[in-house]
Amino acid sequence: MGMKYRHMTWEDRMMLQHLLDLQTSKEKIAKLMGFSLSTIYREIKRNKRVITIPPAHYYWCYRYDSFFAQSKSEERRYVKPDKLDVDTKLRGYVLKKLKIGWSPKQIEGRLKLEEDMPNKVTHETIYQYIYKNWKLKYTFSKYLRRKRVDRIPRHKRRRRVIPEELLIKHRPGEIDTRESFGHWECDLMIFKRGIRTNLITLRERKTRYLITIKNNNKKAYDTAVNIIDKLRQFSSHVKSITFDQGSEFLQYKWITQKLGTDVYFCNPASPHQKGSIENVNGVIRVLLPRSVNIGLISQNKIDTIAKNINNRPMKCHGYLTSEEVFNEAISL
Questions:
Q1: Which has fewest Cβ within 10 Å: 1, 40, 240, 242?
Q2: Rounded to the nearest 10 degrees, what angle do helices 10-21 and 37-47 cross at?
Q3: Residue 299 pLDDT more than 50?
C-alpha cells in the first residue's frame, strides 16, 4: 500500500526549512516528515526564492523559505470569500470583541441584537475565519477559550459514543439518594499548562471519602491502570463508578472487568451530575491551584492532602469525619 497523501501545513514547511538549513538529505527529510520524496522535491522547487549574500550583492543563491512557501500555497488555493473577508465593518466588530474576551458564540448572539450591523455571522464561521489563515490563527487563537493554535475541522472530529444503557439516567435511585455504600465518582484534575501529569480523584458518595492518585498522562489505558490498582484493595466495596465522558475514561470496559463494578457516565458538559467529586475538587484547588506543577509533587504529599480532607468533620455525618464513617462502613 502506498503512502497516504496529505497536504503540507505551515508547521511542516517550517520543519522542512529547518532540516534544509541543517543540510539534511532530502531522502532523510522525506522519511522524518512522512512525505514521499517527490513531494519534498516538488515543494522545494515550487517555493524556493533567490536571496543575495551580503556584502556583495552579486552573490546569490536559492533558499527555501517557509513563510514565502505558505503564502504561495494559500494564493494557489482559491477560497470563496465569506462575510468576514468582504465586510470590513463586520470583521472589525468580530476581531475587536475577540480581543476583549468575547467568545464566538457570544459574538454571534450579540450581533442579532445590533441593528446597525445588517450582516450576521455564526460562531462556526468565526472559528473557520480565524483558523483558515495562519497569520490570524497565531494572532487570535490566544483570545479564544481553549487557546489552541490548531483546530480539527468539525466534520473530522471523532464522536465519543457512550452506550445508552450506561448514561446516568439509568443509574439506580439508591445511588442518587446516597442510601447505599460503595458507589464512587471519578474525575481528572488538570494543572499547569504544558504539564501532562494530572490528578485522578475518586470519592465515595455516601461517606464522602476521597482518594487522590497522581497520573502521568491522560491516556485512557494508563488512567484505567491507576484506578484499578488503587481500588483493587476496596474491590468488594466498589459497586459502581460514575465518570464524565472524557477520553481518559474510555477504558471503562476494562475497569468493569477487573473490579467487577458497574459504570455510569454523565451527560456531556454536565459536571453537576457528579457533584460530590466536583465539590471536593474545589477544596483540593485551594491546596493545589491550577498553576502548580503537579509533576513535582510526590504521591506521599498528595496522600497527605487527601487524608487532611478526609479527617475534617462534616455536618452531614453529625460532625464525624469521612474517614471515620468510611472505616466503619468497610468493617461491616
A1: 1
A2: 90
A3: yes
Peptide bond into 313 cis (omega under 30): no
| φ/ψ bin of 23: left (φ > 0), alpha (ψ from -120 to 50), beta (otherwise) | left
Indicate the burial class of 317 (C-beta count within 10 angstroms; 0-12, 13-18, 19 or more). Answer: middle
Q: Is 178 left (phi over 0), alpha (psi -120 to 50) or beta?
A: left
SS3 content of the chain, % helix, strand, coil (to 5): 50, 10, 35
Query: How deeply is 151 buried, as exposed, middle or buried, from its count of CB atoms within 10 A (0-12, 13-18, 19+)?
Result: middle
Judge contact between 201 and 281, C-beta under 8 A: yes
Cα dihedral across residues 57, 60, 64, 68: positive or negative: positive
264, containing H or E segment: strand 262-265
Q: What is the predicted pLDDT for the residue at 225?
A: 94
Enumerate residues 6+ apart whose C-beta is below 8 A from 309. Answer: 210, 280, 283, 284, 322
| Structure-block grid coordinates of residue 163 | 452506550
Q: Residues 164-183: what's their mean pLDDT?
A: 94
SS3 308: helix
Q: What is the mean pLDDT of residues 249-267?
A: 95
Strands 48-52 and 60-64: antiparallel
